[in-house]
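Summary for the steering committee. The consortium agreed at its last meeting that each partner would contribute one worked example illustrating the joint modelling workflow. Our contribution is presented below. We chose a case with several input lines so that the handling of multiple components could be demonstrated. No manual editing was applied between input and output; the record is shown as generated.
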Amino acid sequence: MAGSENVQQLTGHLFRREAGKMAAVLTRILGSDRLEVAEDIVQDTLMKAVETWRFKGVPENPSAWLYAVAKNKALDFIRSRQRHEQIHSEIAKAIHSEWSLPSSVNSLFLEPEIEDSQLRMMFAACHPSIQEESQIALTLKILCGLSVREIASAFLTNEETIQKRIARAKEKLREEKINLEIPLPQSLSSRIDAVLKVLYLLFNEGYHPSQSDQSLREDLCEEAMRLTYLLIQNPVTKQPKVLALMSLMCLQVSRFHARTNNEKFISLEQQDRSLWNKQLMDKGFAFLEQASEGDDLSEYHLEAAIAAVHMKADSFADTDWNRLLTLYDILAQLKPGPIIEMNRAIVIGYAKSYREGLVALKKIQGLERNHFYHSALGNFFAQLEENDKALKSYSDALSVATTLADKGFLQKKIDEVKLTV
Amino acid sequence: MEKFMYIFHGGSSNAPEMRSPEAMQAHMQKWFAWVEKLRKEGRYVSGEPLQPSGKMVTGKKKLVTDGPFAEGKEVVGGFFIIEAKDINEATELAKDCPDFIYDGAVQVRPVQKM
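What follows is the complete predicted structure of the assembly.
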């Protein structure tokens, strides 16, 4: 037993992380139709750790301890069933021999295989036959070790809703007999797209200031980055678009703590750039450079490149607006939609003139309930010293804003305009 | 200083909060902090977890049976040996056990001096 001199501290989220790893490995062993058995084994294993470690402290190698318990529980399950029920997984053949069963279970608990299992689980959880919201919930539950309650509070919804989404995902896994495997080369690229979409959404949920718990949101970002990094570590899935998404995440997260102050949102223009995390920024730039090898140009490339332009500028005024406009022009073609158009219009305002920015903004439809949109209008009106219109737009923004951070930001804007009147 | 045994009954296993790995880890961390406090004060002597059941040997015939099969609150999860001035102090110290919120119980038994 280790560390009898100091307070025993388990690193970061050991349990959560190991829960995700073990669930992936066990599902690979037992088959995706026995996801629930895998989850129960994980739960029992962690419970056993709590019950044992609390009296004696953490064992020397806590992960190995957990795996040993989980392995034995899996073997017990297989031995109790194998005569009656088929195991539908890649070890199906091995289970009929007491000689090969333990060794094949063992081998899947080795480090490279654990990573591989998590990758396979990602592809299964993000299978195209599963609805997106269920893909996200299942990914968080199985791969990230979050409880239903934690997922519900991260997404500001109730436990029942999340429970249903997860149940639907599990049903699909069973019905469609979705195996835990890395997709074949011909479908790999599109299957990676589906995984990246989920990781991107997961990340954004954590990144955007919402009313859910701050530390929980940071966890979502961290988990999204961890899973993206898993894709990068495997040569088969290390594709340019994956590197691009990783770059985007690093660049965004490096601004995490510069974006809010006392629950108030701080715009890019007002942020103290010295608070940006230099180390993460450099990682972001490096990933973007790697991502640029090859002809692939994904939306993540563009979004990362856009973030990089902002972050390379010493001040808001120094931003290379023309380069940004070029990037937004391409992005708007690749991924058409009002949000991109809005951001593009804002860039037009800075690259050309506020008036042209306003014209571009006013052309956009479908953002009547988006506070960023009204706030952007307010900003350009204020720049042009059309204060009545600025006040009107900021008030419109305030009326549709939902989070305290956004409301605080907008109220401040309104007060500023009033002062200049 | 006298020796006491804490015998821990029941506790966290069935609490719904324990469906979350994060919450489980946080709960265990409370135990570590408690043990550390006892240790720093020079009170903690040793502790061991116990498996839920084992064997019973009884009677003149030394009959061996499986057991005991305790349920839920009755299960003895483990024990500590600690040192305290007297039973009152030992009992007071036991109140820091993190398992009470989950219906756990601690038996405080003075070790009989020879």
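The longest strand of chain B covers residues 76-84. Residues 21-40 of chain B form the longest helix (20 residues).
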